[in-house]
Amino acid sequence: EPIRTDPECLFCKIVAGTVPATIVAQTPEAIAFRDINPQAPMHVLVVPREHYGDIAQLAAGDPGLLAGVVALSDQIAGDLADGQYRLIFNSGPHAGQSVFHVHGHVIGGARLGWSPA
Ligand code: 5GP
Ligand code: ZN
Description:
It comes from Sanguibacter gelidistatuariae. The protein is of the alpha+beta class.
């Protein structure tokens, strides 16, 4: 059964390879690439290949895939930084979500501040 994708979705296009990105890791179920507007020395987006709109939809639809996204995030932080990181899933426009294909922001490589609002 093929995975669900959205032809209008930016991150589905990056998964498909029709929009370029600097990919830093890939698994059969997820990919990770550099954020185009990094907020820290390491700022990587980890994206399941299948299209889910947000973290709650992913958690409900395929909890094992969410666990895979978390595991890949941890691996990337070890490979690209010191293994310490913040993993952020913005959910909804008021939380700052602008791409409606779930993605974890893996942020680190520096001592991080805390000013979510
Ligand atoms: P959100 O605001 O939805 O949580 O995160 C979307 C992220 O995607 C933003 O941090 C933004 O910089 C990043 N982004 C938007 N368009 C592109 C793109 O075309 N390529 C890459 N690599 N990142 C993008
Ligand atoms: Zn998508």
